[in-house]
Design goal:
The chain has eleven helices and 14 strands. It is an alpha+beta fold.
């Protein structure tokens, strides 16, 4: 699906209603309206902030729509009150006059330059962890899709050549073949490519925690606990134990690019293929077999 969104000329997003039968507001059903406010002899239009519409939409809670939002080059978003367009360089709201379509004007009025992140903003080494934190609360019908629905984001970052990162202070890039292991990002270093380096950064990426947002039970369940489909060291295991819209979020404590030089790491990670072969993480990144063909230990 990620290749479809990346190559589509435009993606139409229905950010209204709770199901596919709701239709597009303004096309297949009337929009909701906000009446003007009259003060003296002047009439003022009450504009609905699109970020509120988006945040509260069912579309924004679904796991499979995350890569749709992130990877599409151009998005035409339909809410109950208006439509909104954003590409990589420009955005416009149906309720705004043309004079207010610049990013600076939008930031002054709404508090942000873009309603949705642009590719320049999210395709960096550290931002992949912020994207995982964003994705984590979203819901999926099947627990086994916890990683699958995010793989397209890993793939997009790994598809960018290492030259893109050679000028950055970190010099890190994601391997093209296998950019993650059970959802944990893997990083190669242009300056120091060895087993200890990739293992050490893999260890840093394991530094995540679950944090309380509001009062409420941790991983409350309506029924009996079920065995997770992923290893306990992967964020995907706790995501599968959540009730929809619970009160917890995931936080990645470490950022591999901010950790300075490796000094006496003395840490090597190996993975075991289901055939019994044991290989290093660096060898794993070059294999055609993906993580599902390896044991999670």
């Amino acid at each position: 699906m990620d290749s479809i969104y990346r190559n589509a000329f435009i993606t139409i997003i229905a950010a209204a209603g709770s199901g596919s039968d709701y239709g597009l507001p303004g096309v297949s059903r009337p929009r909701k309206s906000t009446p003007p406010v009259g003060i003296d002899s002047h009439a003022f239009m009450v504009m609905q902030n699109p970020s509120i519409d988006m945040k509260d939409s069912t579309w924004n809670t679904r796991g499979w729509t995350y890569q749709e939002m992130l990877l599409s080059r151009r998005r035409l978003i339909f809410t109950d009150y208006q439509s909104y367009f954003q590409c990589q360089k420009h955005q416009t709201m149906e309720q705004l006059h043309k004079d207010f379509e610049s990013t600076d004007s939008m930031k002054r009025m709404l508090g942000y330059k873009h309603l949705l992140p642009t590719q320049e903003e999210f395709f960096t080494v550290d931002e992949i962890y912020s994207r995982l934190e964003e994705y984590y609360p979203r819901t999926l019908r099947y627990e086994t899709d916890n990683i699958n629905a995010f793989v397209g984001v890993f793939r997009e970052l790994s598809d960018r050549t290492s030259d893109h990162y050679s000028s950055s202070p970190s010099g890190l890039y994601m391997p093209h073949q296998n950019p993650h292991f059970y959802g944990i990002p893997l990083w190669l270093d242009l300056k120091l490519a060895d087993d200890d380096n990739i293992s050490w950064r893999f260890g840093l990426s394991l530094g995540w925690r679950i944090e309380k947002v509001k009062n409420g039970p941790l991983f409350a369940h309506a029924g009996a606990m079920v065995k997770p489909s992923f290893p306990s060291w992967s964020w995907a295991s706790t995501k599968g134990q959540r009730l929809n819209h619970d009160h917890y979020r995931i936080v990645f404590s470490s950022r591999p690019s901010h950790s300075g030089e490796i000094q006496d790491a003395n840490f090597s990670a190996y993975v075991t293929h289901k055939s019994g072969e044991r290989i290093s993480l660096s060898a794993y990144t070059t294999r055609a077999d993906d993580y599902t063909l390896f044991h999670p230990w």
